[in-house]
Amino acid sequence: MLRSSRVMRLVIRGVLTALLIFIASAPVVYGQQACIRIMAQDSTLNNLVDPPGYKTAELGTLGGVVRAGTGEQAMILIPGLGFSGNVFAEFMEGLADKYRMYAVTLPGFGGTAAPPCPDEMASFGEQTWTNGALAAIEKLIENEKIQDPIVVGHWLTGTQLALRLAIKHPDKVKAVIILAGSARLFIDDTAYATYYGTLEKRVATMDRYFAPKWFKTVTRETWDDNNFLPGDYAVNPVRGLRLWREAAAPKLHVWVRYLCEFNAQDITLELDQVTVPTLKLEPGLEGIKDHPDQNYMENYCHKGWEGYLEKNPKITVKTIPNSRVCLWFDQPQEVNKAVLEFLQDVD
């Protein structure tokens, strides 16, 4: 249990490296001069509840579905946090003649309404919004009479939804493809095992400390100044900026809720239950994975999975060189080739 504000600051500093790079004087990316990050909090804010007057969507519904392709084989694509289904538009173009695709938007992203926030005392370990999204995808499969879909999951939460769908319905999911997937918030410093060593500790850390003491009152300016960077999303700086703008656009309470639920789970504990063929395409992260101000991406995309993937022969891992989180923009031909070769083997 944290017993002083000083201890709290030290813990935050270690565990929010990727979410909020919590070092006020951390150097700017690419070796520029030190830049003091904005760290302002606003005690009048409450990002754990719906903003006044906010019109919510029903829990268990999707924000939207983008349909594409004329093939017989169904494919469901689930974008990572911040993105709508439209982020897959170019990826789907390359598969349009072979697959019938449904790119979903999680409620709250892409300008859509989010579900109502649960009671402020509800645990993030309950995965309220994440499970609501899972139920919505199950409804999509039922309503559209989708049979044996290939499920594609991306980045944060898209990964969890794809894998949980396959774990829950192994007889109904043909295969899973994970694009730049992140398994969990991973801290490689063993000093913080007290807070993240088990799923129970992970959930308690979010419920008792980070949500009420940081995320609840974080300002939009502080959030944007410390969240993921454009260079995390794509190698090309212009593309990275466009993707960053899209990911940063949703309401702050929406990002906070989904991210806290992501931080309060650990999909590696369920990987032994994956029984369908699964391909995990990892971004190479060249140029940032060894940089002191962006090496958190190595934890998210690579290290958080170590020791678990190897134990399941159903899971194949392939690295796409010279790519970042939205790797199909960086290396479209290599990604399509890897996907098609994998699915050919599945067939």
Structure description:
This protein has 347 residues and is α/β, with parallel strands linked by helices. The chain has a single domain (5-346), classed as 3-Layer(aba) Sandwich (Rossmann fold), CATH 3.40.50. It is 37% helix and 12% strand. Strands 1-3-2-4-5-6-7 form a 7-stranded mixed beta sheet. α2 (89-93) links the parallel β2 (73-78) and β3. The longest helix is centred in the middle third of the chain and has 17 residues, at 199-215. Mean pLDDT is 91; it is low at 1-11 and 13-32.
Which terms would index this structure?
347 residues; alpha/beta; Rossmann fold; 7-stranded mixed beta sheet; 37% helix; disordered N terminus
SSE layout and pairing:
Elements: H1 5-15, E1 64-68, E2 73-78, H2 89-93, E3 99-105, H3 128-143, E4 150-154, H4 155-168, E5 175-179, H5 193-196, H6 199-215, H7 220-226, H8 230-233, H9 237-248, H10 252-263, E6 278-283, H11 296-301, E7 315-320, H12 327-330, H13 332-346
Parallel strand pairs: 2-3, 2-4, 4-5, 5-6, 6-7
Antiparallel strand pairs: 1-3
